Amino acid sequence: MQPRHFGLAVPPATGLCSQRTNDIILGMTEDGVKEKTQSNVYKAFIGEAKAYFRLLAYAEKAEEEEMPQIAHLFRAIAEAERVHATRHMGLMKEIVVKDTDTNLELSFQREKSISENAYPNFLSDAEQEGETTAALAFSQARDAESYHAKLYERAIMNLLKNKVKAYHVCQVCGYVTDKKQPAKCPVCGAPKEKFKSIAGE
Amino acid sequence: MQPRHFGLAVPPATGLCSQRTNDIILGMTEDGVKEKTQSNVYKAFIGEAKAYFRLLAYAEKAEEEEMPQIAHLFRAIAEAERVHATRHMGLMKEIVVKDTDTNLELSFQREKSISENAYPNFLSDAEQEGETTAALAFSQARDAESYHAKLYERAIMNLLKNKVKAYHVCQVCGYVTDKKQPAKCPVCGAPKEKFKSIAGE
């Protein structure tokens, strides 16, 4: 299976960019979806995805302010926005759920591609532009994705099947490990309090 | 507070669309972030958001295939991609977490705006283009968002504070209720088995 590019990073032909209209014949995009609708599905996906992540951040804030019921409301509506985002992604033909072995292989290839190509390029641009905050975010994301690739690789090699462990996810940089929770994140240096454990079934 | 547009639906000036370069002076965007980096942050957000929703779909598939450990791995890495997406959104200045009362008000205004403006426009385009699958998704999302607005409105009126209830979220159309779980979704007609209950603390 060939490595795939960071896929969804570049917007599809949306009609917003006139230089892309050469790709479109009689208002029909290459996916066979009419142009305006393809653009709208993409916009709707972005809006729902942002709503989802924003509502989870609002829920955390509500918890800090000791308003558990409002936190709960934000989480429930976030879940609904996840349903919408996933449905719109299906219309964009971006979610193609195959068998699990294939999904693992695709996930491994995507992580390799974004840690070896997309994020290093983003990092280089940020460094050239002197955008140090973005550079740090890209650099740490690149390193975290490279650890994700290793976890997928081990799963593909059947080392994980039928063993249920806890995963520890750094809430600053997205590093994930299935080993003992580290005292300090090896990617960003965050202390152990910044880790969230995702327990198995 | 003024209603806000579907905010994140329209990509920011990214350099992909030449007609937007008039907005950009000396490679600096209106947010004060250099142009290439702003575009890269946006692309990185989209890539991470899509990875997040895709991995959750892969986790469900792995569960169906009775591979709980792989499902668990997909969920843990999804959580890491959520961390990345949220961090990139912060760089886009899209997550501005204020106090909970303000967050509720903003969420109410956003839901009103997307159910009364964005989705009706998307629906009208889809109907004109004969895209019936997208039209149904937009129509049901519009109705679900309008129910979300009502839930926020009640929260703002203090009817929810300090009462912990279960919310029921339709996994087909994103309808949410804090009442008894309906036998059939009032928006899309899905049976009660399609509801996910989000329990309080």
What characteristics describe this protein?
201 residues; homodimer; globular; three-stranded antiparallel beta sheet; mainly alpha; 4 helices
Question: What can you tell me about this protein's structure?
Answer:
Two copies of one chain form a homodimer. Chain A has 201 residues and is mainly alpha-helical. Helix content of chain A is 54%, strand content 5%. Chain A has four helices and three strands. The first copy, chain A, has a three-stranded antiparallel beta sheet with strand order 2-1-3. In chain A, a hairpin with a 5-residue loop joins β1 and β2. In chain A, α1 runs antiparallel to α2. The longest helix of chain A has 30 residues. The N terminus of chain A is likely disordered.
Summary of the model, kept short:
Chain A has 201 residues and is mainly α.
